[in-house]
Design a protein that fits this description.
Blueprint: H1 3-29, H2 34-41, H3 45-57, E1 61-66, E2 74-79, H4 91-106, H5 108-130, H6 135-148, E3 153-157, E4 163-167, H7 173-178, H8 181-194, E5 196-202, E6 211-217
Antiparallel strand pairs: 1-2, 3-4, 4-6, 5-6
Helix pairs in contact: 1-3, 2-3, 4-5, 5-8
């Protein structure tokens, strides 16, 4: 990399760092004015305004005009809902704690009932998307559904007419590692949505690199 390229990268990193600090200030202290942000960061208001404008363009910050009893209206800035994605979340820890508490109070069967209820709700939600479609179309639709849920899914058709779907990310991995019923319910859900035989040969909750599903059409009955 030449000197010009290195300088450009450094400036980009510095800009990203400043915007991150602005987001942190808005998260902890907001809403804030440009002046308040500049004072907290020790940079010029012009510099802050440039970063805040970029955050607005990225739908990470929003402005509100606050009218004062005297003087000009004041513009204050705060974070949008989208910006929440940039801050750490521990939802899986809370979910695990609640499941463990239920397990302790009512036993494993009560936990399994929860997972089965989730499977039924998802089946009711997604079944209409599978109606009057070929198996290949259903596999493609299921992959899209999983991608929308953050599973990083892809699929392909094998030479023998079967299909393979792989998921490279598992948003519920921490839960599934301790409660394998979650994986069983997912496999059962796939079989019901696809109306096919689904076999899982690799699982991230068991240390695999991905969750791999082989999908085979159900055998058609032969006339007697």
């Amino acid at each position: 990399m030449n000197e010009k390229g290195a300088l450009t990268m450094k400036k980009g990193q510095e800009s990203g760092s400043t915007r991150r600090m602005i987001m942190t200030l808005l998260k902890m202290k907001g809403p804030l004015t440009i002046g308040a942000l500049a004072e907290a960061l020790g940079i010029t208001e012009m510099g802050v305004r440039r970063h805040v404008l970029q955050l607005e363009q990225d739908s990470l910050a929003k402005t509100k005009v606050v009218r004062q009893a005297m003087g000009r209206p004041m513009h204050v800035y705060s974070l949008t809902e989208r910006a929440e994605e940039y801050f750490p979340k521990s939802y899986h820890n809370l979910a695990l704690e609640l499941l463990r508490e239920l397990d302790h109070i009512s036993g494993t069967e009560a936990v399994n009932v929860l997972f089965e209820g989730r499977r039924r709700r998802m089946l009711a939600q997604y079944s209409p998307m599978m109606e009057r479609r070929s198996l290949e179309e259903r596999v493609a639709e299921l992959s899209s559904i999983q991608n929308a849920g953050g599973y990083m899914a892809e699929w392909n058709r094998e030479e023998d007419g079967s299909y393979v779907m792989r998921e490279y990310n598992c948003p519920i991995r921490q839960v599934a590692t301790q409660y394998r019923k979650a994986c069983q319910c997912e496999q059962n859900l796939f079989e019901e949505l696809l109306d096919a035989t689904v076999t899982r040969s690799e699982c991230m909750a068991e240390g695999g690199q991905c969750c791999r599903y082989a999908i085979v059409p159900k055998p058609t009955g032969k006339p007697s």
